[in-house]
Every structure is written in C-alpha cells, then in structure tokens.
Amino acid sequence: MKFAITSKGDSKSDQLKARIIQYLEDFELVYDKEQPDLVISVGGDGTFLEAFHTYNHRLKETAFIGVHTGHLGFYADWLPRDIEKLVIGIAKSQFEVVEYPLLDIKIYPQDGSEVNHFLALNEGSVKTTEGSVVLDVNIKGEHFERFRGDGLCISTPSGSTAYNKALGGGIIHPSLESIQITEMASINNRVFRTIGSPLILPKHHVCELKPIHDDRSFLITIDHNTRTYTNVSSIECRVADEKIRFARFHSFPFWKRVHDSFISDER
Ligand code: NAP
User: Fold this and answer.
1) Which of 2, 80, 82, 190 sits at a 20 to 30 Å CA gap from 236?
2) From the CA of 171, how far away is ligand 1's center (Å)?
3) Per-residue confidence at 254, pLDDT binned at 50, 70, 90?
4) CATH 3.40.50.10330 boundaries in the chain
C-alpha cells in the first residue's frame, strides 16, 4: 500500500510525521505523495481540510485518516500516543472505510465563461465587502426567498459542527446525505423577510443563489480558502456525487466525538 502524510508544519507535527513514515516504511509500505492509497493528516481539522483539498482529485482511490497534535478534532481523531496501534493497523489489516457526504458548489459567471467547480468538506459561504449580500434563493427550481444580510453558509453534515454551528445551525449526522443553509445576520423587518431558520436539503434538491445586483463582488469561501468573485450570475449548491472515504481502524462514533469536543472528554 502507498501512503502520504501531510503535516501542520509545527515541530510536534513534523516529528510525528517523520516517526509515522519510519514505522510504515519498516513495514515495507511505500511513501508516495502523488498517488497514495492512504493519506494521513497530522495536525488539526484545519490540516485535514488542506489534505482533503490536495487529494480531492482522487477520492475514489484515496482514503483519509487524521491524527491530532493539538486538541481533539472532528477529522483529526487519533491521538499521538496511539500511533503505534494505528501503524500496526495500517500495516497488518485491511481497513474498513466510512464515507461522508460532500458539498458540490458551482459558481457561474455572467459572461458564460468557465464555471468554477468545487467540492467542500465543511462548507461554502457567500459574503461581500460591499454592504449587504442580496440574493434570490431558489430551491429545486422554485423561488424561495430574497435574502438580505451578511451572508449565507452552506455546510455538509460533517461541517455542521464548524462554522455552521457558530451560526446556530443544527448538528447533522453524516449518514444523512444533506446540506444545510444557515443565515448570517439576515435583515428582517416589514419590507425584507427571510425564513430565519436553518434549512436542511436532501440529496438532489439543488439550491441556487442568484445575485440581484450584477456589479457586486462576493467573497466566497470553500472550507479554509477564500476568493473574491465578480460578475457572478449564480451559485449552485447540492450534495456532491463524490464522497470522502475515511479509513477506520477503531470505532469512534460521531455523537461521541460531538460530546467529547463540546461537552467534556472526561468519562
Ligand atoms: P481557523 O479559523 O484557523 O479554525 C477554525 C476552527 O474550526 C479550528 O478550531 C478548527 O479545528 C475547527 N474546525 C474545522 N473543521 C471543523 C469541524 N468539521 N468541526 C468542528 N470544528 C472544526 O480556520 P481553519 O483551520 O482554516 O479551518 C477553516 C474552517 O474554519 C472553515 O471550514 C469553517 O468551518 C471554520 N470557521 C469557523 C468559524 C466560527 O466557528 N465562527 C468562522 C469561520 C470559519 P482545528 O483547530 O483542529 O484545526
């Protein structure tokens, strides 16, 4: 089996990366940054997001695993002290795979030029530096509302514990193939009206965001990456056909991770 390791870049993560490479090469596994079967991310959830975006062109072939060198993460859920157990698991056993849904985002330009197409592991968000974001929100081809406010966040189930949670969204179990739309400070008065609640869309319900003003620029984030887009005709969001595959060597149920991250990790 071929493996690659990404590191947060601090000395603790780099040392752990070197140790894992040494251990796995001792078991005659091959370090291959280009075409790994398994990617091990060492750092935090932010490092894991980087690893996902580096290898998201080969999601069918590559499985992921996260080791945390800071606090417990949602993706980085292995402890450095359990690294020997993990290495033996990788070297000696056929690993189980658990799949989580992703968000598919397409940004269509007004001039019909190339569509920007992304996959997000946590979320995409739409904001602006020029006043309020004003968008028509269409769901499944029907007009739903005209949104005015700071922006919208569209998250995956596994991203529901990240930015989405801070915006008052619900935590969604990743076995539910869905996306969640949460508002950022919507304007609500007698003139402007939005639903005001997070919306959870099933697979195949496409959400289209259509800017009202042709000349506004938008800050669009895809996980940890932010870019400015001008002349946006529409932004299309749906549950992706692709999924991320996690290599599983021990059971760490999602609700236990939620509990240990947000309530307490003391038993
Ligand atoms: P960052 O601002 O350096 O860190 C954001 C925090 O979110 C980190 O503590 C990170 O964990 C944690 N995180 C990432 N994915 C998570 C998940 N699925 N569940 C629970 N916590 C998660 O940014 P970054 O490291 O580049 O990560 C980008 C992410 O930050 C975005 O995808 C977005 O979800 C999140 N974000 C959150 C807020 C907010 O909560 N108000 C605002 C903007 C963005 P680690 O420390 O383990 O890396």
Assistant:
1) 190
2) 15
3) very high
4) 2-95+249-262
